[in-house]
Amino acid sequence: MAVPTVSRHMPVFRRCVEADDTAVLVARCLRPDRPLQGEFLLLLTQRRLVVTQETRLLRRLRLHLNAELRHLGNVNWNPDVQLSAVELAATAIDGVRERFWIRVGHPKQLWHLDALLSRVFRPKLPPRPTPAAAVG
User: Fold this and answer.
1) How many Å is the Cα radius of gyration of the chain?
2) Digits of tens for pLDDT over the chain (136 positions)?
3) Which of 29, 59, 74, 83 could form a disulfide with 100 if both were Cys (CB 3.0 to 4.6 A apart)?
């Protein structure tokens, strides 16, 4: 992704994300249900999902989605090997179902993205402690 593109979106991202929150993914994406709206820029951190849009004509930035991960429901993603893309879907706290299409250049990147999303949205739970043996 071009540095000028990310730089244009940085002021919006800085307002949404705390300084100690680590970025996990920055990617261009489309909305499959509204392909004519143009491209979006998605920032996924350990705690937030932020999506911005740049208007085509005047190149103004618009915040599309700013949500804590714990406030997103029914998060799922579907890798598509033939299209080298992942569809990420989540329901925002206001009940709106958001869908984003993230294209990748190579199948290895597709599986890396799948693993990254699993790590963020399905973190490993600590092992359950085994019950103490009953003293009898």
Assistant:
1) 18
2) 677 777 888 888 999 999 999 999 999 998 887 766 777 999 999 999 999 998 777 677 889 999 999 999 999 999 999 989 999 999 999 999 999 999 998 888 999 999 999 999 987 656 666 655 544 4
3) 29
